[in-house]
Amino acid sequence: VLWFVGVLWLLVPRGAAPFEVWVFFRVNNVLSAVLSVSWVVLVRKYPALWSTYDGFALAWGAHHLMYNSCTVSTVCRLLGLSVVDAKDEGYQMLWCVVWAASYSSFSEMDLRYLMLLFVYAFVCWSLLAVMLGSPQLEMVDCLKMLLLYGAMCIMTFQ
Predict the structure, then answer these.
(1) pLDDT (tens digit, 0 to 9) for every residue of the chain, 158 residues total?
(2) Torsion angle of C-alpha atoms 108, 109, 112, 117, degrees rounded to 10
């Protein structure tokens, strides 16, 4: 199902975002789907790979939360494009919290790995927000969102 959703995600129109930003998100999404499906296929063929589940889930979740932490303006800055003011910071933060809650509820990871994943996601969001900023948010607003995101990760973990 995830592979099918990943391929369907390619059909989502890019809206006002530059083509390069659209490609960034779509390639990362398809890569994430391919990684998860490949792992499932490998673990069915080689059941001994279940011992690597926590490490794989951590790596996959870290990649997934990292590229979902990027906003349109962040990706524009990373790729050296003219910055598009998409006003999507709150949406991306909510999306990351939903993914964090999903990992917490459905992954059955070792809690140490799950905590490490949440810390990684928070640090990634923080570095992107502080280093690259946002065209429409003041630094105080970025810090408020960081505190809110951290609190949501803590509540999700519990």
Answers:
(1) 555 666 676 677 767 788 898 889 888 888 888 888 888 899 999 999 999 999 999 998 899 888 888 888 888 888 999 887 777 877 887 888 888 888 888 888 888 898 898 888 888 877 887 777 665 566 677 677 777 777 877 777 66
(2) -110
- Tell me how far CA of residue 146 lies from CA of 72, 93, 121, 134, in angstroms: 18, 9, 11, 13
What count of residues does the chain have?
Answer: 158
Cβ atoms within 10 A of the Cβ of 9, count?
Answer: 14
What is the residue whose two structure tokens read 């069915």? 44
Quick count: other Cβ atoms within 10 Å of Cβ 55? 12
Question: CA–CA separation, 65 vs 90, rounded Å?
Answer: 15
Task: Return the C-alpha torsion angle 60, 35, 4, 114, nearest 10.
Answer: -20
Query: Could you report how far apart the first and last alpha carbons of the chain are, in Å?
Result: 29
CB contact at 8 A, 89 and 145:
yes
Tokens of 51: 């011992």
